[in-house]
Amino acid sequence: MKRSLSGIKPTGMPHLGNILGVIRPAIDLQKTHDTYYFIANLHALTSVRDAEQMRKDTFNVAATFLALGYDPSKGCLFVQSEVPQVTELMWLLNCTISLGDLFRAHAFKAAKDKGEEGQLNNGTFSYPVLMAADIMLYDADVVPVGKDQ
After folding, report:
1. Mean pLDDT across the stretch 66-81?
2. In contact, 47 and 10? CB cutoff 8 Å
């Protein structure tokens, strides 16, 4: 069976866009795929600074998945930061990727287009490396993501 992997950032109460864009499709893939879905709290650190709010939002994302029919006996729903291998692999990848590749990544280009590249934090700059670590670690066949990814 093919493996599906995706993540959702806990950056507020899940809304209709999250439900229709990520959560429902993820639940539907349980019928045909081995599913691994994570609550991307490491990704959210680029913008969320309140630890208590992060905990609440993480809980709300998990509760929404379960309330809408995600079956944990048929897949894996987990919190990204609970898997230390993600950050270990990210570090290894960071030590091999060139700055030129990161300058061409979507997050940096978007910030540059807005004239905000000097305000960009390193987490946002190296966000694509964390995404690559997520995908490589779980050997995913299918990675449903947005067009900007």
Report:
1. 96
2. no
